[in-house]
Write a structure and sequence with these properties.
Elements lengths: L12 E10 L2 E11 L5 E4 L6 H9 L12 E3 L7 H7 E5 L12 H6 L16 H13 L15 H13 L5 E5 L7 H16 L3 E6 L11 E6 L2 E7 H4 L2 H8 L5 E4 L2 E4 L1
Parallel strand pairs: 3-7, 3-8, 5-6, 6-7
Antiparallel strand pairs: 1-2, 1-4, 8-9, 10-11
Length: 266
Amino acid sequence: MRRQGMRADAPLLELCGARVVRNGATILDIGSLSFRADEHVAILGPNGSGKSTLIGLLTRDVRPLASDPWPVRFMGEDRWDLLEARSYLGVVTFDLQETYDLPVTAEEATLSGFFGSIGLRPHHHVTAAMRERAREALEDLGVAHLAERTVCTLSTGEARRVLIARALVHDPDVLVLDEPCSGLDPAAAYHVRAAIESLARSGRSVVLVTHHVDDIVPSISRVVMLREGRVFRDGPTSELLTSEVLAGLFGVPAVVEERDGRYRMW
């Protein structure tokens, strides 16, 4: 689903001297970092470490300071069309959930992923194939039975899974999830993490942004750690999710337990 000119062998996202400044302060400063389109990776760090800013560079919601060459490349290109990038990426930021405090059904919310809108508009032409794909996405996330319910009446965890379904309707190769389990109770977090693991195992690449070690599902093989807007560590999950490394990342004593590829930190 790449547009003409995109290199198939190029990294999904490549940063070289990418610096983001807000109100005179540097909030992200990345010397060199790249993500492949065929890997599952977690971006881990405390609040304010620059994780969401990094994803903003990918979605072009955030612009770095200009330099030559341009410091951000997507699929080998300095500039990219957002509509075409959306066919390759499924981006889920759960700030979006607050905007669905409207009489919008779960099915309508999912269908709106085809149009990049909040719910459906009168000028949107929804085809039978779109409706079928929306139902399939809801089924994959285990919330098809909620299709006719308005999103504002769903539990927080159910609504999160609807938003993931919304990102999946155009069958993106890469799913980007920003803080997927923030604010969820243990049961809801379990179902969202199970859905992420299932999607990763299905062959779709996952980029997971989180400050919770528990969110890192077994299929994620690489962790990029951010601290104070810079890369703290970058490497295999099994080597970085240790008590010593996580204590350094978060600046507090840490004890890590691993069981069947899942991690917990105390």
